[in-house]
Each structure stands twice: as C-alpha cells, then as structure tokens.
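RESIDUES AND SHAPES:
===
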Amino acid sequence: GQTADGPISGNIVVTFQPHLASQVQFLSDRLHRPYPANNLEDWDSVMTVQDHEDAPEQIIPRQQWSFARLDAGQRVPDASHVYLEAGFIPGKVYQVIYSTTGAPVVGLGHLAIRDIAAFLKQGTPDAGNPCAGEVEKAYAFGVSQSGRFLRQFLYLGVNHDQDGNTVFDGFIPHVAGAKRGEFNQRFGQPSSQASRSNNSLFPFSDRDETDEESGQTGGLLSRLAAQGPLPKIMYVNTSSEYWAGHGALLHVDLKGDRDLDLPESVRVYLLGGTQHGLSGFPLTDNDADGYRTQQLVNCLDYRPLLRAALVNLDKWVTSGQAPPRSRYPRVDDGTAVSPEVVLETLGSIPGVNRPAQLRRFTRLDFGPDPGVPSNVPAKVGKPYQNLVPAVDQDGNELSGVPLPYISAPLATYTGWNLRHADIGGLGQVMSTGGASGGTLRGSTIPFPATAEEREATGDPRLSVAERYASRDSYLERVKQAAQSLINEGHLLAQDLNPVMEQGEQLYDVFLNRVAQVQAAND
C-alpha cells in the first residue's frame, strides 16, 4: 500500500520465542517474507525480553543489539535480522518494535478467495471457467491459520459476490479456537500467533455481545447476518484451543458464567482429549525441529471425526439434513470449568507438573481502527475469563465428541504439554507455532502397566492390566464406542476398520510397555 507521497511507513512488532540458543533472529514468523527495518541506525527501535508473554517486559539496551546477521562469524548489517551480542535465551519471549516501509494490502487475500470460488460457481465457459455449470455448492475448510482466516472472512461479511450471490455455502474453521488474525491489517503478519496481536480481538462469539470493560459490542457473524441467511458453519476444535485459543469464548459469555445460544446454522464440536495438530507413532517427547516436551506427545488421530463432519456439512447444505447436535463443554452441566480445577486432578498423576503460567487472552487497544493500528504495541488491558473442558478421575475430558480411545482409554490424553528444561522456558505450556501462540502440543500420559506399578508410584489411575482382561476385551470396548459414534453420525461406517486398526496399534504399543514393566519386576 502507498499514498500519493509514496510507500507507507509505520511501526511493527515482531515477536519470537527461540528454543535454541542463537545470537541472530530473522524478523519474520515461520521464515515468511520479512518487513525490513527502514533505518538500521534507528535508535528509537526497541527490543524487549519477557520470561513469558504475560510477564513484565524488560527493555534490552539499544547498544547491545543491532539490525544485523552473522556471515562467517562476522557481524554484517542486515535490515531483516536482529543480532544480540549476549545471545537470545531459549524459552524467553522477545519483541522488536521498529519502523518499516511498504505495506502490502493483505486484506485482498479474503477477496481473492471469495472471487475464485464465485467464479468457479458462476463463471461461464467463455470466461474460461473449467467448472462451468458443474459447481452447485462450495465449502470452505481451514486448519489453524487458515481456520482463523475463515473466522476473519466471516467477521468481515464478505461471503457474497458482486451480484449478491452467496459464495461459500458451508464453512469448517478447524482448530481456530476463538481467534482471528492479522489478515486485514497494515503491516499484517498472517502467520503470527503472538498473544498480543489481532489474533485475540473481540468479538469471539457469533451473536452480538457487549464487553462491559471496553464498551464494545459485536458478534463474529453480525455483519453477515444483516445481509441475509447465514451459511452453515461447523467450528471444530481440540482441547488445545481451549487451553491456548480461548475456545470457550465461542459459546460462553465473557464473564465465564453463562452458556450462549448458538445460531441455528451453527454447530460447535470439541474433539475431546486431542491436540491441535496430528502426531502419531512412535510415541516421543521430541521432534525433528527440536521441540521437546515433558510428557509424551498426544498420539490420537482425529481425522475420522473430521471426515464425518464434512459429510454431515454436505448433507446439511444440500438436503437440509441436520447434523448431530453441538457437543462442547458447558457451564450449565459443569463440563466447562476453570483450568485450576482440571490441574488439581492432573496434578495427582506422578510426574505431571502444573504450568507455571496459564495462557490468557487480554483486552488489547490498538487505537480506533485495529486494521491501521495507532498503538504499536497495543495497550494491554484486563484478561478475559477462560474455561476448559472438565475431566474424569483419569484426567480424560468429559465433554465433546470422544474418540473410541477416550471412551476406552489406555492413557490420559490432554491438549497441552510443558516445555522440557532442555529447550528453556521450564514450566511454560509448549507451543510450536512461533511466538508462544496457540499451536499447542498435547500429552499422552500412559496408565500404570500393572497394579504393582500403580501402587509403587502412587498413581490414582487404574492400571491397564486392571482395566482390560485381554487385547480382545479392549478392542471390543473400542468397537462399541466406534459403533456409537457411527449411530450418532460422528463417524462414517467406512472408517470403522481404520479406527479398529489404530486401536490395535495403540494397544500393542501400550502392551509392549506393560511387558517391559512386568519383565523389570520379575
């Protein structure tokens, strides 16, 4: 973007949290194209460091850092990197506030997505439409960042083409929580997950709600609802989005004491006990990028539930067949609770540590127009209330759509994990999505193998051997749970065999652990 006088200049905040020691950081999230500093000697630029994103900010003296990188061990001036002589400490959170020039019109991304879908639905063969006359309905599915993009798309109310036709008939924003993002902001960083960014702006729920603290009133779908009938929408989240993405604000009021009514065209589903992204086997507490956690990473595969959701959305749009009712933690039945309540149960499991700090959304003031922020960085206000899914005596979640491996568990499965001491930030909730944002790693915390192990460690959870007489008895429990999901419409019949195969794999992995423990005791 530019004015008649030339390219636009302004301040920007780049936030990062290293997990490896280094003297140099790239001024970009996830190696995307950076916004270069427009003056390498600008002494008004600021670098801060925090123990975590909600901790007090300490300013690093300007003479201790510079816009530079290392080349063969020599410091070289560079507008897209910062160099800190003392080195960046793993686990700490750093912000660089500096002036840059040249603001791409990032909001055009929404219009591009709208227009290509509209063209495929409405465009003629003469106009070059390869799908002319073949596309009756269009659906938008987005995961994580692209799910947040879809929430912003809905908020802006741009789901009609220039002739007033509906573009997308159905939406599935997946693992987006209650967040949006920097998708329509000057100097926007669309992949950034920094808590103090446009990711975390009110409104969060679909219908108009008033924030008594700020005086703001709004709803995510208010603009769109004013234009006519709403599209069909399924918000699908994992446990991670409740612990880091304030997923409860989708359906609970800002005070955290009342369930909100959902529009008839909306469903909300929690995939209980799962994490933001897929992991799988072998069980590990580490990955190729060096992100190490205190517990084994959550290994549950929720893709079968997503496949059923897509089929249900298609039936809802094309034939009016209503999908299964929403399933999410609620205030009125006690399944939406404060994180402290859950941590009390999980803290009784040997080897499970409590987070030193819990993630929280805070009220942010970017100025009159958050899309053209005048407060950089934003002024930080009071935090929002946050609720998470309640758990049973095993630490597994009570609400949402349960995978069969939650109904017939071999472990405690959570949507959060803690950083390992090896990568710094000990006690912080583990995020792999750039600056301590919402891409949480979950946990797999195996049940004791035998009653003897349970008694020796003081684990309150029944052992695997006490729960299941044999492999067949375990698999029968899994099959019963899977059949219930099929009957309810949350699982496709064709996915029964793959679900059972994963159950077999899970049991064999944990049975191997049982055998190892028994051998050690012999």
Observations:
- The mean pLDDT is 93.
- The first strand starts at residue 2 and ends at 3.
- The first helix runs from residue 108 to 122.
- The chain has three domains: 2-101, 108-446, 449-522.
